[in-house]
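Notebook p. 47: complex prediction with manganese (II) ion.
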Amino acid sequence: MHKPVMVPHELISFIEEGDKFIIVGHQEPDGDSVGSQIVLGKALNRLGKQILLCSAGPFSRTEISCYQNQFTSSISDLDRYGARLIIVDCSILSRTGLASLLAGLPTAIIDHHEPGSYADNSSVLSPVFIDPQAPSVTFMIFSLIKALGVSLNAEEAELLLFGLCTDSGFFRHTTDNDAATFEHTAELIRNGASPQRVFKAINGGKTFNSLVFLGTLLSNARSYFSGKLIVTHETQEETHRFGLESRDSDTLYQLLQSIATVDAVVVIRQETPQNCTIGFRSQGTVDVSKIAEQFGGGGHANAAGASIPGTIDEVWDKLHPFFEQILAPS
Ligand SMILES: [Mn+2]
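Predicted complex, structure tokens below:
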């Protein structure tokens, strides 16, 4: 069973000793990074700290767009003066998309991704609170807030549940014996979080266009290795035609992973004529983070990403041998 990692006392001191904090999450924020930032910010506010929430955006996911006005992507020298930085939901400053504005500040990291290389992070790398088993960073933020002796109101409890449900796919990705996740959820509900409202926030509010976009990407899907691998792609023309705000990656992955034979799913997006971003999902023992790492990317065993030079066809030619090794019948 997952035993949550204890909140490091260095992190508690780091927070107690500062009076001004910049809290940043990863680029292309999701419910987990946004929820973690807002709730941590409110808790620190309550402790009398000055807070600035930063995000490079874009807030293209419909369920988080309503939070955009709480974040800024411009950080002045005055903002930096005397500030400490807390990075959530990623461990590398460059993933925030704001590295040039944030480098050099005393930095703490709160993350649930596998500790990767921090080589490009020029900031002071202490303290670090990393729990790769945690279902979401919001899960860790709750432990931190309790350790700080701050209470949570209903709205904050719901934001923490929002983060957990985003990352756990509404508990679809919870592993066996993960009772801790459900105990945490029960506590959030006791504090006033509503699973029904969170479900509507995450899964409702879709546009007609987003479903037509989804249909297009489903039509682009191809099956390999007797259906063990499904690969689909998004051209620049398609991105342009439907708009980023219509992209519904979670539902796309969910539908592709519902195929009986499937072990892994790959989504290749042509971002520029020279470059693609790749999303990997898998179930069971297929570790897609290992493949992503071959191309300088990373993530979890069952959810990873990378950026690879080339056209969609060229990128698929590069990826194919790696999947052949693990999925082709020997
Ligand atoms: Mn997360």
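Notes: The radius of gyration is 20 Å. The chain has two domains: 9-201, 208-327.
Next step: compare against the earlier run before touching the bench.
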